[in-house]
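Render this sequence as a predicted structure.
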Amino acid sequence: MSKTFDRYASIAFLLVGLLFVIESMKISDSAYGSAVGPKIFPLGLGVILILLSIRLLYETFKYQSTEAVKEKLQYKKFFVILISAALYAFLLEKIGYVVSTFLFLLIAFQTMERGRIVPSLMIAAVFSFGVYYFFAEFLGGSLPGFPLL
């Protein structure tokens, strides 16, 4: 990417992260049937986004002045991942968190890098089950379960 684009993007993401943090503080602290409050996730995302945008802004000051070769935009990959993300959001309640997340990750990994199906399957499965177990069992939260359970 270009230096100016990265700077503007980091400032924009910093503002979005601040908005997430400020607005998540207005959400109530507890939710029925869950030990984890509803404001934890947006607050955490906002903090992560702020930290990453500060890092990106810092990195732009360290750029070397080299001519970057323009890369061809990959519209097909973008639209495949965009459509799969929309389907993920649509199917989350219908087929459950684990199955929908597994399918979304598998499609995204294969879109970004063809082949290497076994590592993609393993990473998608471990991430899907791991996050579900961590959030639902360890933290006591609730996620859409399996479709037939």
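Summary. The chain is about 70% helix and 0% strand. Residues 17 and 33 are 28 Å apart (CA to CA).
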